[in-house]
Amino acid sequence: MRYSLRWLCRYVQLTCTPEELFNRFTETGTEVERFWRHGIEDPRIVVAEILSWDRHPNADRLRVCRVSTGAQGEHQIVCGATNFKQGDRVALALPGSRLPDGKLIEPVKIRGVSSDGMLCSQKELGISQEAEGIWILPPDWSLGTPLCQWIPADILFEIETTPNRPDLLCHEGLAREAAAIGCGEFFPVETGPLAPCDQPLDWPVKLEVPEACPYYGATLLEDVTVGPSPSWLQALLWAIGKRPINNVVDVTNFVLWELGEPLHAFDADSLDGRIIVRYGQPGESFLGLDGRLYTLDSSMLVIADGQKAHALAGILGGQESAIGPQTRRVLLESAWFEPAVIRRTARKLSLHSDAAYRFERRVDPSAVLRARDRAVLLLGEVAGARLRRSPLVVGEPPPGPGPVRLRYSKIWAFLGVSLSQEEVQAMLQRLGVRCVEEGKNFAVWLPPSWRSDLGEEVDLLEEIVRLTGTQSISGRLPSGRMAPGRVDEAFDRMERLRRALAARGWQECLCIPLLPRGEGDQHGLELANPISSQYARLRLSLKEGLVNVAALNVSRGNRVVRLFEMGRVFRRTQQGMVSEEERLGILWAGEIGEVHWAAPVREVDFYDIKGVVDWLCDRWELLPVEGPIELSEELQLQTGLEVTGYYAEFSLAKYLTSPKLRMLGSFQPLPAHPPVRRDLAILVPASVEHREVLQKLWDCACSLVERIELFDCFVDQEGVRIPAGYKSLGYRLTYRAGDRTLTDEEVNRLQSQLIDRLKQVLPCTVREGSPMRSSAG
């Protein structure tokens, strides 16, 4: 959030330099991210008036302007902007002046025409980021006067406020904090009571949902003249990056940044004489001040009359009741809204405003009437507004923080700092905390309404150490026993697999698990409030993210792309629940390796990635859920991947939860006895996959089976040698014992037992004439 030091000094008399103030803010937990000089310091940048203009004789997009600076005479300026007309007041940088960015203005010739200075935009003067056209000044700014008289030099600074300190979201709150941390004397904003009125306000206000809006104030102002704000008000708004609109709207913005309480001004004549605070109706439309049409639902709080909604409560006003030049009566809203309700609506509509930012963090209930009184006073000054009817207030403000008991002995026990009771009381009183009861070794303190974060004893202890300074806490070594940490088994297994892939030349990716909204995907999980349309749903697979990374690498000239990612995928089950699963995705695209003089360049093919898949399945016992497959042309065109690529995805559920895994075993010495091999040919339906058969073989095998490998796959389309619709799979089983040489009789018996068990768990038959070949060594 951006703040103005000149504005801040309206409420605090500093006893230190700006740099010391910013350092002290940061030391006490209010981090100042950066600060910089703002405003116009060069007196040769002045107010000028457009007398006339003509087209440039040698350039279609340039204009030759004649401007006046009053007593300083007339000047000829060549300008490329088109947003001005005769009689407009503009900012003129005379020759010899220097812009805030250091640029020196000198007389020049542009396409053969002399230009005696420069007409400046707001961006060129460092006022704002608006660079479209030159800056059109208020008509009451005197000709020839330096702009530094209207936009004084200032120091701006940005603060990162924490969610528990909404009181720092205004200049008065920052001034109060500056005084509390010992940097000056605080002077609160003088609002004063409103002048009494003889007539009550006959404008019914109905709170249909008091749990969402328990406190609402309405004030009717008449004889309002809408126009530009005075220069002092515009200058303060420009300083914090807010564009002045008109005097009524500018006052509400000024009060928001002064006191932290958002207000809203309705054109009273556009309402039907009632105010109803209610939830929106399903499908109800609302046209906002930003020109967008919003569709409401029953969870969104609105401010309405008897006909329609005129504002999203605490977030955005409506276009139909906006303040305009024709406005003569203003209904001023000052209210307190439940933070959760405002936050929910803002997120659903992806709509954020200065008002919503404050209501979401809980504004000070006592500021509701203070802000109203301050706005009424200012509107009387800058817009001629008159208060003829007493303001209306409905409901009660929410309760503030309750009393907190502080034991003085806890200061040393928690903080290790020795402070006297007088020192503690002085610190807390600077924060606005009042002592309501005092005992021998304790005191009961009542936090102010703007410090809703002070609810427990530890909160007061935090404030004490914050004001004392962490540098005052002495360093002490911790005492007690240090318990050894435990290694998480699942994390350790993930790390082993990650290191193994990296050792084989694969590079790990971490892709965002959010993807654009998909069509026709009944298992996808769409976000209720995505940050953008590109991140609207949770991923069902790791493929899309890896393909996008591969396309980026190839476009940058990387010829060898071997990527993997270990992460979660999300899907909706048939019961409507959400399922999350850890998976591994691998993608190999481009060439198989770096160019070498002794080896030809070759693109990756199916068998390259199949070898990796076999290694992951056999060595690491991973279960494939997709692939290996070649990436489709549609996906390659969609992502811009210009080379052939292959992808495979595995479930890590079994790998992470199995009690024993072969690849995690201890060291085994080299075998001293020869192996015995047997071949097994079985018939299975063509729909049965090799990985299913292999898994069943391992389940049925005894502990002496060392290896199982597929060496043959036969399909007879004519159905002569084997029935149609079946396939023959040939497996070679390797038996070995660690303490002896196995005999043929022993191996034959083990093989027969395996076949019997396999027939019970798999629809298969051993082919007639199946070789039971034996080999040793």
TrEMBL record:
Q: Which GO terms describe its molecular function?
A: ATP binding; magnesium ion binding; phenylalanine-tRNA ligase activity; tRNA binding
Q: Explain how, and how many, cofactor molecules are bound.
A: Binds 2 magnesium ions per tetramer.
Q: Which reaction does it catalyse?
A: tRNA(Phe) + L-phenylalanine + ATP = L-phenylalanyl-tRNA(Phe) + AMP + diphosphate + H(+)
**Which top EC class is given?**
ligase
Tell me where in this chain the TRNA-binding domain is found.
39-148
* Localization per record: Cytoplasm
Record carries keyword tRNA-binding: yes
Q: Where do the B5 domain residues begin and end?
A: 399-475
Q: Which cofactor does it need?
A: Mg(2+)
Annotated Mg(2+) binding lies at D453, D459, E462, E463
Keywords of this entry = Aminoacyl-tRNA synthetase, ATP-binding, Cytoplasm, Ligase, Magnesium, Metal-binding, Nucleotide-binding, Protein biosynthesis, RNA-binding, tRNA-binding
The main location class comes to cytoplasm
- FDX-ACB domain: residues covered: 671-767
BP-aspect Gene Ontology terms:
phenylalanyl-tRNA aminoacylation
The record's annotation in SMART domains points to: B3_4, B5, FDX-ACB
Give EC number(s), comma-separated. Answer: 6.1.1.20
Q: Cross-referenced Pfam families, in alphabetical order?
A: B3_4 (PF03483), B5 (PF03484), FDX-ACB (PF03147), tRNA_bind (PF01588), tRNA_synthFbeta (PF17759)
Q: What are the record's GO terms for cellular component?
A: phenylalanine-tRNA ligase complex
Task: Indicate the quaternary assembly.
Answer: Tetramer of two alpha and two beta subunits.
Q: Which family does it belong to?
A: Belongs to the phenylalanyl-tRNA synthetase beta subunit family. Type 1 subfamily.
Q: By its UniProt entry, which NCBIfam families does this protein fall under? A: pheT_bact (TIGR00472), YtpR (NF045760)
Q: What is this protein called?
A: Phenylalanine--tRNA ligase beta subunit
- Species for this entry: Candidatus Methylacidithermus pantelleriae
Encoding gene (name): pheT
